[in-house]
Design goal:
Layout (H helix, E strand, L loop, with lengths): L3 E5 L4 E8 L2 E4 L9 E2 L1 E4 L5 E3 L1 H5 L8 E3 L11 E3 L2 E3 L1 H20 L5 E6 L5 H13 L3 E7 H9 L7 E8 L4 E9 L2 E10 L4 H20 L7 H17 L5 E12 L2 E10 H25 L9 E5 L6 H11 L12 H14 L6 E5 L4 E5 L3 E6 L4 E2 L1 E7 L9 E7 L9 E8 L12 E7 L5 E7 L5 E5 L8 H13 L1 H31 L5 H19 L3 H22 L7 H9 L14
């Protein structure tokens, strides 16, 4: 079986892993980096940059650089880039394409399958959106796996006595906590909860707001009105946050961040770890509250927890480690990189599917209850949260009016009694119900959740056997047609897009050569021969028309001609070195010399 990629599609960074010789291995990207920044940028040359290349140009291209797109997965929000509305799935797909390309570059072969991780608390919309992103990127997503579960797989704790493990996963954009029972190759999730909008990004914003507010108070300048200044400050704040995990205080310096009538202004501020911890303590306390909730849901006590696994870069923050220790004791298990363990676990899951890894059974749970709306806007759960998946469950319902011919099925996910407080997954209509008094028809609603946590709903009128079955999708998730359209559009225009980028690059090179030629020529017109002057005049007059054309060959020819004429000027200025060899070089460089600008050598 072909290789199956294990991908941690993170908010801040994404990581790629593959099973090699029975063990999960991190695969470096083309730049030799183990982590790929989850940043996507769209340049003025129609290039799409992903990773550190995108992150490095964010300051000068902030309007077309997208960060933390994971937080928008499953939402209807679109990102406007160059008058085109892009869905979160399309942007996430660019990250997945990059990871796929890096893996194929590493192995020298095409790879089409992947296991992708998601936060345990991702709802059905978000899981569907992740699968859609994989499909757009040219990947068959053979499994969606929860991040805490993947981390537990990576730690390899299943050997020996049965253990109860708490996985505390605090990343750049999301927080999850899961309780697992593992032993003898079986990994069973017994409780899971979290918050999909809580993570390191929020810590950055707290620190950023403090600095911007203080700067405004001291200088009377609101940095929030300067996009470039804010982007630069965001980068420095993230670095400062990381340094504060190692040091008690850090000096943040950004020269020339702004200016007023008195001249340039610099930003110089000392940040103490204690200040930072005070800013984010409420967030950390929320993760502790959710951790307590997961333990209560699991029906375990704190003493029952054998080990705590810290996952995600934000767990390096000393305050996080202190709070966990205060809650559960000194049970943190450190034998793997918290940035990489999720991807390693995804690769192991890929190995289980391909048969490369045997003797492991993974049992996960659904993080939220699934059910439907009944009269009065009340939510009725059909599958309670923390139910082991895959699973199927049914309930009987009836009509609320005499001779009712149809009923709308509104599918929701959540824990609230009122439907409006839960997550709407979609609506559909069950028709052809037999005419009867209200309360007589029997309508069976069946929910099924597969191993990816994806939901299917089936309804049947037990009297008429009229039925409907759907995989939950709504406006927040791309339809199959939309996905196929994006893929086909990408394939259809792939060669055209490559040609366009190549054409723009060649135009840029020609413009650069002509600029150098004109500068050199203007300074030395009187010192060079009439013949060379004439050839330069012709080239300069014709280059505008060539640049407007779409012939790469012509643009290359003019570029080489411009470079050759620069050499001719230099040769004539140094008559001792002037030889006819330059003509040979020109003929060698230019496959098809243009007669109208190379007449001094003949055609």
């Amino acid at each position: 079986m072909s290789k199956i990629l294990g991908i941690d599609l993170g908010t801040t960074n994404s990581v790629l892993s593959v099973m090699e010789n029975g063990e999960p291995t991190i695969i470096n990207n083309k730049k030799g980096e183990r982590l790929t920044s989850s940043v996507v940028a769209y340049t003025k040359d129609n290039e799409i940059l992903v990773g550190s290349s995108a992150k490095n140009q964010a300051v000068i291209n902030s309007d077309k650089t997208v960060i933390s797109i994971k937080r928008k997965m499953g939402s209807p929000e679109k990102i406007l880039i160059d008058n085109k509305n892009l869905s979160p799935q399309e942007i996430s797909a660019e990250i997945l394409k990059k990871l796929k390309e890096d893996a194929e570059y590493h192995y020298g072969e095409e790879i089409t399958k992947a296991v992708i991780t998601v936060p345990a608390y991702f709802n059905d919309n978000q899981r569907q959106a992740t699968k859609d992103a994989g499909k757009i990127a040219g990947l068959e997503v053979v499994r969606i796996i929860n991040e805490p579960t993947a981390a537990a797989l990576a730690y390899g704790l299943s050997e020996g006595n049965e253990q109860k493990i708490l996985v505390y996963d605090l990343g750049g954009g999301t927080f999850d906590v899961s309780i697992l029972e593992i032993g003898d190759g079986v990994y069973e999730v017994i409780a899971s909860t979290g918050n999909n909008c809580l993570g390191g990004d929020d810590f950055d914003l707290k620190l950023l707001d403090m600095i911007v507010t203080q700067y405004n108070e001291h200088n009377g300048i609101n940095l929030r009105e300067d996009k470039m200044a804010m982007q630069k400050l965001r980068e420095e704040v993230e670095k400062t946050k990381k340094e504060l995990s190692e040091r008690e205080k850090v000096e943040l310096n950004i020269p020339f961040i702004s200016a007023d009538k008195d001249g340039p202004k610099h930003l110089n501020v000392e940040i103490k770890r204690s200040q930072f911890e005070e800013l984010i303590e409420d967030y950390i306390d929320e993760t502790i509250r959710l951790t307590e909730k997961a333990i209560n849901d699991s029906k375990l006590t704190y003493d029952n927890i054998d080990k705590v696994l810290l996952v995600g870069g934000s767990t390096r923050i000393p305050l996080v480690q202190r709070k966990i220790k205060e809650l559960i004791g000194d049970k943190v298990y450190n034998n793997i990189n918290p940035d990489e363990c999720v991807a390693l676990g995804a690769a192991i899951q890929g190995g289980i599917i391909s048969g490369d890894k045997k003797g492991i059974v993974l049992v996960d749970v659904t993080p939220l209850s699934l059910g439907i709306e009944i009269e009065g806007g009340i939510f009725v759960p059909i599958i309670p949260r923390n139910t082991t998946i895959p699973t199927t469950a049914s309930k009987l319902f009836t009509t609320i009016a005499d001779n009712q011919k149809s009923v709308e099925i509104h599918v929701l996910q959540g824990e609230r009694t009122r439907c409006q407080d839960n997550i709407s997954l979609g609506k559909f209509l069950l028709t052809d119900i037999r005419k009867a008094k209200k309360g007589e028809p029997k309508i069976e609603v069946t929910f099924s959740i597969n191993t990816d946590g994806i939901v299917e709903v089936k309804t049947i009128d037990l009297d008429t056997e009229s039925q409907h079955q759907i995989t939950i999708q709504n406006a927040n998730v791309l339809s199959e047609e939309e996905i196929e359209k994006i893929i086909e559009e990408s394939k259809r225009n792939a060669d055209k897009d490559k040609e366009y980028i190549q054409l723009e690059r060649k135009r840029t090179l020609l413009l650069s050569s002509v600029k150098i030629l004109k500068n050199t020529w203007e300074k030395n017109k009187e010192l060079i021969s009439e013949e060379v002057n004439s050839e330069i005049t012709k080239l300069v007059e014709e280059v505008s028309e060539i640049l407007q054309g779409e012939s790469i060959e012509s643009i290359e020819d003019y570029n080489e001609s411009a470079k050759f004429l620069i050499g001719e000027i230099e040769s004539e200025l140094d008559s001792q070195n002037y030889t006819a060899s330059a003509g040979w070089l020109f003929i060698k460089y230019v496959k098809k010399p243009l007669c109208n600008i190379t007449s001094i050598f003949g055609c």
